[in-house]
């Protein structure tokens, strides 16, 4: 029996950044379906809805309306059924306090959103190779 490929959950309010991530995932040939939520509350609604497949990883923007990335991360990491899902922050922030806060709340990684698309592809390829080789909690 064929096991479905788990989705990647992208939590990103910026349409251009979301399109860039989608394009990058296609470029590096990631087969996982992508579920896109525009803010933390929408992402939590997806995660808590009965019948939605759990994502293998969450790619999270920090600066969003309604519920920002740090608030979302805090909710996920305190939820008994969600806290083991790895969350990687994708951010334009260069502030050390944002990195520290993300890791303090349980982020598995912090990747820069580069305006240089070829550099962003390299970052995403490295990220994909790392997660493909890692044992993930179930």
Description:
The structure is a single chain. This protein has a single domain, classed as Rossmann fold. The protein has 5 helices and 5 strands. The chain is globular. With 138 residues, the chain is of the alpha/beta class. α4 (96-104) links the parallel β4 and β5. One of its GO terms (biological process) is phosphorelay signal transduction system. It holds the Pfam family Response_reg.
Helix content: 40-55%
How far apart the termini lie comes to 19 Å
Supply the number of helical segments: 5
Largest sheet: 5 strands, parallel
Mean pLDDT: 87
Low-confidence stretches: none
Give the helices and strands as they follow along the chain: EHEHEHEHEH
Shape: globular
CATH homologous superfamily (4th level) name: Response regulator
Secondary-structure content class: alpha/beta
Strand order of the largest sheet: 2-1-3-4-5
CATH-defined topology:
Rossmann fold
Number of strand segments: 5
CATH class: Alpha Beta
Tell me the radius of gyration: 14 Å
Strand content: 15-25%
The number of domains is 1
Do you know the CATH architecture?
A: 3-Layer(aba) Sandwich
């Amino acid at each position: 029996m064929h096991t479905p490929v788990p989705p990647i959950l992208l939590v990103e309010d910026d349409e251009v950044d979301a399109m860039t991530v989608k394009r990058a995932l296609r470029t590096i040939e990631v087969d996982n379906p992508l579920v896109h939520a525009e803010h933390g509350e929408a992402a939590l609604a997806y995660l808590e809805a009965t019948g939605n497949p759990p994502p293998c990883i969450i790619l999270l923007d920090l600066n969003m309306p309604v519920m920002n990335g740090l608030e979302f991360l805090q909710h996920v990491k305190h939820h008994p059924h969600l806290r083991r899902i790895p969350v990687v922050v994708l951010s334009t922030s260069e502030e050390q306090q944002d990195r520290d806060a993300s890791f303090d709340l349980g982020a598995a990684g912090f990747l820069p959103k580069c305006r240089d698309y070829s550099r962003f592809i390299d970052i995403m390829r490295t990220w994909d190779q790392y997660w493909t080789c890692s044992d993930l909690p179930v």
